[in-house]
What we know:
This protein is mainly alpha-helical. The protein is 68% helix and 3% strand. It contains five helices and two strands; from the N terminus they run H-H-H-E-E-H-H.
Amino acid sequence: MPTEADNNKHGRKIPNDNRLIEPEIKKKFVIELRNRFRVLADLDQTKDSSTEKKWENIKEKDKEVKKKARKDKKNHLEERAEQAEKAAARGNISTVYKITKELCLQSKPPPVKDKTGNIITTKTEQAAHWIEHFMTVLNRPELINEFQGTPQLRYYQ
Length: 157
């Protein structure tokens, strides 16, 4: 004997609507549905507000961390500058040079990679790579037809 679940594609139980014909049962059913949806709506709002509060807290902490990092960096630079001034007053030029070099932070160029993505370490290999690169980029076949100019230019020449 087939059941209601057999008729449903997803195997869910299909409610019996015949009982909702009676007004008293229908009224209780509607009230129960409203109460359940109100609880779900309240639950959804509390989840939204709690996640918003958490994100606001995270944003605040992120701003604080960035502000402290900027302050610490500024303090470190000022401290190193004072050390350089003291070293200059003592005549210790090597220390002044080291501190200046550290503060300027001379950036190094990125490593040179070959066509397969491997890093080239030696200067001779790097030079050979650049020669090969520019040979392929700059050496183009010559144009077949030379540019003769537009008809207007020929008229004025």
